[in-house]
Amino acid sequence: MDGILVQSIHTADQLLDIMPQTESFLQNSQTQFPVRLIVIDSIAALFRSDFDNTSIDLMKRSSLFFKISGKLKSLASRFRLAVVVTNQVVDYVGDGMNGLKIGNLEELYSSGRRVCPALGLAWSNCVNSRLFLSREEDEKANNCSVERSEEDGGFGSRTTRRWLHLVFAPHLAPSSCEFVIRREGISGVDR
After folding, report:
1. Residues with Cβ < 8 Å from 58, sequence gap 6 or more?
2. Cα radius of gyration (the chain)
3. Is 45 helix (H, G, I), strand (E, B) or coil?
């Protein structure tokens, strides 16, 4: 964990409150080992419990989205670093905002369920590029990662196929790739 700084944040307000300290840290760390990546996992978790589904709370939440994303974009530009922010997905529940096309994919599926981004349209307007990770359990697939199930004591096996989809990026063409996760690390699957 050398060279990795972890900061626990539990609310969107806490994230905004630590931004000045983050900026100061980034400025002071430029001479030693400059920070090149900020990861927020997960942005949706910061908003899930603090806001109700009322118009006032939704406006307040959207305002925080834009403040947070604006500050993160400013840090990325100023300090030449990448920012990765994970969202969560929720089950697709039908027509309405959930039914909007999100980037290049008509529908998003993972683990056999149709899903959509948890924070919806307001958050999708705050990000520059969107990636979607999905997985499927596949009994008949060849050349896929085989994972041992802890429930069966590690003796049984299941085959998991994983994909990374470029859902939206203004400067890149739509694309997807399959990958595997093994003890040695992550690698692409040639087909």
Report:
1. 51, 122
2. 19
3. helix
C-alpha distance from residue 159 to each of 60, 170, 177 (Å): 43, 34, 17
**Per-residue pLDDT tens digits of the chain, which is 191 residues long:** 677 888 899 999 999 999 999 999 888 876 677 888 999 998 988 887 777 778 898 888 889 999 999 999 999 999 999 999 998 888 887 765 444 555 555 678 888 888 888 887 788 888 899 899 998 886 654 444 455 444 445 555 667 889 999 988 999 998 999 999 989 999 999 87
Q: Are 138 and 159 a contacting pair, CB within 8 Å? A: yes
Kindly list the distances between the CA atom of residue 155 and the CA atoms of 136, 138, 144, 152, 158, in Å, as whole numbers in the listed order: 20, 17, 18, 6, 10
Predicted TM-score (pTM) of this structure: 0.75
Cβ-based neighbour number of residue 107 at 10 Å: 11
